């Protein structure tokens, strides 16, 4: 039986303010838990059901066996009958542009978008994502679920984005800063270089003016003549630009 202490803690971690205080977060479901157990994250507590154990008898980490009813009481998911882990957050460590590409996000609010961007970065081998402090929390369960395990392999750094760019311009002058804007040069006509930082902005408001002042090259995805959509989802746009960047990078 889950103790009241753990019930209270797990339920509190559904909210960002308590995740920030405790430096913990939740991972739920069979596949995410199995991937988590192969990662470098430290698991503070693992609750599993008999159903999970029958399907995965070789789990080596210490766990607490609970009923599916107990899991339902503490879970943020609607139908989690398998497992729930309380996990230690990693340190919010500075990520810098070495000989690679960093995706930087300015006010990305939708957890599904952030999770999908992490998945896209993971697919293309982009290992660093920088988010401004107003972007959605990495440890939001909707972000974790949307990332399909990619949050385990792509590192995120939350910071004041303007100060971060100032630091990079001063200390990594060879790094080019690109930004996706409606007025930018076509990605099909752009000669990309790395190290680089690619800034993607809020779908409704775009990239902040004070951020744009540090950008070396504004880029855009030209709409085909046959196209009718007014804009692209920021995650889809990120996938298109990253794909072209890696194909056309010198």
Automatic annotation (TrEMBL):
Keywords: Methyltransferase, Transferase
Residue ranges occupied by any RNA 2-O ribose methyltransferase substrate binding domain in the UniProt entry: 26-93
Taxonomic path: Bacteria, Pseudomonadati, Bacteroidota, Cytophagia, Cytophagales
Sample GO molecular function, one term: RNA binding
Pfam family, one: MRM3-like_sub_bind
Family statement drawn from the similarity comment of this UniProt entry: Belongs to the class IV-like SAM-binding methyltransferase superfamily. RNA methyltransferase TrmH family.
GO cellular component, one term: cytoplasm
CDD domains linked: SpoU-like_RNA-MTase
Protein's UniProt name: rRNA methylase
Record's keyword annotation contains Cytoplasm: no
Organism (species): Raineya orbicola
SMART domains (alphabetical): SpoU_sub_bind
Listed GO biological process terms: methylation; RNA processing
């Amino acid at each position: 039986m889950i103790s009241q202490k753990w019930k209270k803690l797990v339920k509190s971690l559904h909210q960002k303010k308590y995740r920030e205080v405790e430096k913990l977060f939740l991972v739920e479901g069979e596949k995410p838990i199995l991937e988590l157990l192969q990662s470098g994250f430290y698991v503070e507590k693992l609750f599993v059901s008999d159903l999970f154990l029958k399907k995965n008898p070789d789990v080596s980490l210490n766990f607490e066996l609970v009923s599916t009813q107990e899991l339902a009481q503490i879970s943020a998911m609607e139908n989690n009958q398998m497992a729930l882990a309380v996990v230690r957050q990693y340190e919010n460590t500075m990520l810098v542009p070495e000989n690679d590409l960093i995706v930087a996000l300015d006010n990305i609010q939708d957890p599904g978008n952030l999770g999908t961007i992490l998945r896209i970065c993971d697919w293309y081998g982009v290992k660093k994502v920088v988010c401004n402090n107003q972007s959605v929390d990495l440890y939001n369960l909707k972000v974790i679920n949307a990332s399909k395990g990619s949050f385990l392999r792509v590192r995120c750094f939350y910071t004041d984005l303007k100060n971060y760019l100032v630091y990079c311009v001063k200390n990594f002058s060879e790094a080019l800063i690109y930004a996706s804007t409606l007025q930018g040069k076509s990605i099909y006509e752009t000669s990309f270089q790395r190290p680089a930082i690619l800034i993607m902005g809020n779908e409704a408001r775009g990239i902040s003016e004070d951020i744009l002042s540090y950008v070396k090259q504004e880029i855009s995805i030209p709409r085909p003549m046959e196209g009718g959509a007014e804009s692209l989802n920021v995650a889809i746009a990120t996938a298109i630009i990253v794909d072209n960047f890696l194909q056309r990078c010198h």
